[in-house]
Specification:
The protein has about 350 residues and is an alpha/beta fold. It is built from 17 helices and twelve strands.
């Protein structure tokens, strides 16, 4: 039994509390500074989570952000960060104010950023920010792989991967939370797992656009019935480009071929917001138009990532090397129609 503190009361943070509590750990979820009303709502309604639409296990506590320091000083064994990618900097600053010892951290957040004109995965970003704020010793792991929050909260079989350069730490966390439905594999490829977890959101937009891209001259009805050839070709090229990009950053090809890569890409295509946005873009809508009229309240992680890393990707890679990735970046960043150059596709993985 361990004491686990989850920072972030949203869908994925709360869903993660299910295997944690099912493994008889003591679990506390602390909302961000923006979640006070949300926490009150959960605590007042038999702990029904309004996003997940399910009752959270009784032994999981929900507390407001003001309790963060008090809880961390209560001999916490593991801190789990489940904020948005934009909130990682905030979480790092707030944790640095209350951390007094080296407590292992697991990041559920998926993202990639730029620092000093270099790609930076979120584990390294948090390490850098914590050290900047006086926390000299850190031990941070990353979670990757196909895990939709509502599925996990309904205890469906879910396989994920935890990554840490010290594989012993990843294995220790895996043992804490693995259940008969939550299957945790481990890896020492932190860069590969984090990069795949992030860029798969870009490629899931491409896969979502496959119906609209399959043939611009046939009817919508025919597209709905005959787009799978196109989707398969886009899937193969997506995997190829994920390998190119990941290996360029010193991540491993086998990571792309595993849960963090192909696995997460599959679930994002079948059940994610990025694929939904891709569907609208494939129909000929611009990103801004689709965001405003179709998905005004949705966070589209792939689009946010395209804006974050787009300029550097354009400078580092040619359209011949990454035709899909650069096409969607141009579409998002420059408000251009999505145009695919099929002649740049490769027949096999590198």
């Amino acid at each position: 039994m361990a004491k686990i503190l989850i920072l972030g009361a949203g869908a994925i943070g709360t869903a993660f509390s299910f295997p944690c509590s099912d493994k008889d750990n003591l679990v506390t979820i602390i909302g961000t500074h923006l979640d006070n009303n949300f926490i009150d709502q959960i605590n007042s309604k038999d702990k029904t989570h309004p996003i997940l639409q399910c009752i959270v296990p009784k032994n999981v506590r929900f507390l407001k952000f003001e309790k963060l320091g008090e809880e961390i000083n209560n001999k916490i064994d593991l801190i789990v960060v489940a904020v948005s990618s934009k909130g990682i900097e905030w979480a790092s600053v707030e944790l640095s104010k209350v951390l007094k010892e080296k407590i292992p951290i697991l990041i559920l957040t998926k993202g990639l950023t730029i620092n000093n004109n270099k790609y930076e995965v979120l584990v390294h970003k948090m390490e850098r920010l914590l050290k900047k704020n006086g926390i000299k010793e850190t031990n941070i792991s990353a979670a990757g792989g196909p895990c939709l929050a509502k599925g996990l909260a309904n205890r469906v079989h879910t396989s994920v991967v935890f990554a840490n350069s010290d594989i012993k730490i990843a294995n220790w966390i895996a043992r804490l939370v693995s259940t008969d439905y939550y299957h945790v594999f481990t890896s020492d490829d932190v860069i590969g797992v984090e990069i795949c977890s992030a860029i798969k959101n870009i490629f899931s937009m491409i896969l979502g656009a496959s119906e609209g891209l399959c043939n611009t001259t046939i009817s919508t009805q025919l597209k709905e019935k005959n787009y799978l050839n196109t989707a398969a070709a886009l899937l193969q090229q997506s995997i190829y480009e994920m390998i190119i990009f990941t290996e360029k950053q010193k991540g491993k090809k086998e990571t792309v071929m595993g849960l963090a890569g192909i696995g997460d890409l599959y679930v994002s295509d079948k059940g994610g917001r990025n694929s939904k946005m891709g569907q609208y873009i494939g129909q000929g809508m611009t990103f801004k138009e689709a965001k405003k009229t179709k998905m005004p309240n949705d966070t589209v992680e792939g689009a946010d990532l395209a804006v974050e890393i787009g300029s550097k990707v354009k400078s580092d890679f040619s359209i011949e090397t990454l035709p899909l990735m650069l096409s969607i970046i141009n579409t998002i960043c420059d408000e251009k129609p999505l145009i695919i150059n099929w002649n740049n596709f490769k027949l096999s993985t590198p």
